[in-house]
Structure to design on (182 residues):
């Protein structure tokens, strides 16, 4: 079975969490994690460039096979939502530019994959990350969220693989039944 490296990203203009895991069969292991935090005093465009460069360095350093990004929740402040969207664009663009497939997951899906409920709070997510990835050590909220995004993607990959395998078995059974009936 081939090991797959997954980069999870929790985008934010102030702090973008990132985490890399490796998945081999049912095993999930921690590789690295951290937070990208551009200086808030930088002009907006330079903060975006900082995010772009930092995520590019993470992709180069850890060579992920796939990436997953958390979708943003709707913000009542349109200006904040727009700025967060720009940061999210960096999280989507950099891995895509590196040729990686990029998946997106709603926060509720990520929380459900890691904690078991879509309404989990950040402390519950961090607690489960510590249990699922004990070698990760202490994580910030942003890094824990990014690792959770990577785990959600790993789980979704397994579900898709199972579905594909089940469909192949079903199709083979149908072909055999047709041959037998004829």
């Amino acid at each position: 079975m081939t090991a797959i490296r997954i980069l999870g990203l929790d985008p934010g203009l102030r702090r973008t969490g990132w985490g890399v895991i490796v998945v081999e069969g049912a095993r999930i292991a921690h590789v690295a994690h951290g937070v990208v935090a551009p200086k808030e005093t930088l002009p907006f465009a330079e903060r975006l460039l900082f995010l772009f460069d930092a995520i590019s360095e993470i992709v180069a350093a850890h060579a992920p096979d796939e990436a997953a990004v958390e979708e943003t929740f709707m913000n009542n402040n349109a200006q904040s939502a727009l700025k967060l969207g720009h940061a999210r664009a960096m999280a989507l663009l950099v891995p895509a530019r590196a040729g990686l497939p990029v998946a997106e997951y709603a926060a509720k899906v990520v929380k459900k994959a890691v904690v078991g409920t879509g309404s989990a709070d950040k402390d519950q997510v961090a607690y489960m990350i510590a249990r699922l990835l004990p070698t990760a050590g202490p994580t910030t909220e942003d890094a824990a969220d990014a690792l959770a995004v990577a785990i959600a993607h790993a789980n979704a990959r397994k579900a898709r693989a199972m579905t594909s395998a089940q469909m192949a078995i079903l199709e083979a059974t149908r072909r055999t039944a047709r041959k037998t009936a004829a």
Summary: Residues 4-154 form a domain with the Nucleotidyltransferase; domain 5 fold (CATH 3.30.420.10). The chain is about 55% helix and 20% strand.
